[in-house]
Amino acid sequence: APTTMLAVRTLAKGLAGPAAYSTALLLRRGVHTGGVEAPFPGIPPSALAASPNELEETGKYHFSTLENGMRLASVETNRQHAVVGLFVDVGCRDEDDETAGICHILQHMAFKANDRRSSLRVVRDLERRGGNFLASGTRENLVFAVDALRSDMPLAMELIKDNVASSHFLPWELEEQKAIVSREIEELTAETIVAEALHVHGYNFRNIGRRLYAPMEALHLETGVTGDDLRAFMRKFFSPERMVLVGVGTNHDYFSDLATKHFHDMSSSMERPPREPANYTGGEFRHSNDTLDVAHLALAWEGIPWGEQDVFVAAVMHSLLGGGGSFSSGGPGKGMHSRLYRNILNLYHWCHNATAFNQMYSDTGLFGIQGSADVKQIGGLARVMLEEMGKLTGPIPDEEVMRAKNSIKASVFMNLEQTSLVYEDIGRQLVTSGRCLTAGEMGAGIEAVTGGDINRVATKMLQTPLTLAALGKLDYLPRYAPRAIQKEGNSFVVLTLPPWPRFDQIVRMVKLQGGRGTQIVVLAGGSQYTVILCEKQKK
């Protein structure tokens, strides 16, 4: 038609290169170029539109509870992609000496042979639809999730139910996964080992201090964990009132109907013992390894648990400290507004990494700084880490506070674009604290934080015992000396020799003139001591 050809030529004159050619070709062929809401010529309406899984208001959270106590949560994204995740309120903190490592092994035995499907068929049925499954765990909960198209929601729900209700735990599959877990443990990075040691020694090997990774005894082929052990553990802890089922990219009524169909027959477990409260004690872990090129160090104090209002303050403190590596794959300038970048990484060439961390659990938390440095500078790294924590108790410019708040708020709202992060956030909030804050509520809580709040919470943290974890060649890592010089009723102690004594409270930190070290006033056994932190001298 002449009119169509004229439109093609006119449009092509205003475009250049491939864009002009492709657009003109589409018009010549009569291909649909209307909006996304207009139907395509010759293509029938999507079966999805006629399904019960109709679209809802985007971003609104919906909650309900099944008769057996299982909690449901969903949010509509108006996308074809959906995720279903089951969160179980059990983790390594609930293990004992006989069941140590079971939660780690359960993650690897997820979505294997069950009453309905073999392992091969589980993988085949999901992959032929472009889906995927995953299993992960923390110290307090396990997660089993299926990532698929929203039209495959029934399959996703079925696979998750079979995984927690009728897994066979076949001996040959268990043997294979034990070998994989063993290799995984052998390949743990130094950073992971140090982070794990902080928990284990900070909580004295109990509750939160239980090892996240399976011990070698549990992986033994003959005397280790068996399929019967896994089933007994699941019967004891996998009860519906301790579960949260989350769907992202689905209509809640449809989601609730599917959950009722598949999980209504799950009954409560009367065997589950009460969870032991967390008891933070502080502690120390030092492991010498002369094969490492750098020394790794982490310092931590008890942080803020989920559910407390001060979680927003701890989050802003974490953003304020920030940190990272001396080399950034994201290009120059990324994150360099944070204190650890400006005050450590940019000033000391021997520091390879300095990063703040903020771990939150249902009844406790762990806050601190982890880093690595040249072997001979590990004492200097300890000094600057303590100095940065101490500075949080002093004046903080409003500009810094505002920058930290804006940074973390931007992160919260940008994460809403990632389906995998949305379902994980909803599930972990509900299973850990029993409630779920929206992004708007989080933003309001963050915005309300002031410099005075940071001073107060930092002081509270520093009053708890210190936990230290170090790995590498540690000859230059300072220790408390057993000798003291009396002055005005206080003791001056030099950090040069073992052992490291326990103290109850850090009162204040002051950097000494001339770079001689840091003066730390501590409270131990009812008496106040002044400690001088310096680097160990060569022998």
Walk me through what this model shows:
This protein is of the alpha+beta class and 539 residues long. It has 16 helices and 17 strands. It has a six-stranded mixed β-sheet with strand order 1-2-6-3-5-4, sandwiched between helices. A six-stranded mixed β-sheet has the order 7-12-8-11-10-9, with helices on both faces. It has a five-stranded mixed β-sheet with strand order 13-14-17-16-15, with helices on one face. Strand 1 and strand 2 form a beta hairpin. Helix 5 runs parallel beside helix 9, helix 10 packs across helix 13 and helix 13 runs antiparallel to helix 15. The radius of gyration is 28 Å and the shape is globular. The termini are far apart. The N terminus and C terminus are likely disordered.
Spatial extent as radius of gyration:
28 Å
User: How would you sum up the global shape?
Assistant: globular
Q: Return residue spans where pLDDT drops below 50 for at least 5 consecutive residues.
A: 1-33, 46-50, 480-504, 512-516, 534-539
Q: N-to-C terminal Cα separation, in Å?
A: 93 Å
The largest sheet, given as strand count, sense and whether it forms a barrel, is: 6 strands, mixed
Helix-strand category: alpha+beta
Average of per-residue pLDDT values? 82
| Strand order in the sheet with the most strands | 1-2-6-3-5-4
Strand content: 15-25%
Continuous helix count: 16
Helix content: 25-40%
Number of strands: 17
Name its key features:
disordered C terminus; 16 helices; 539 residues; alpha+beta; globular
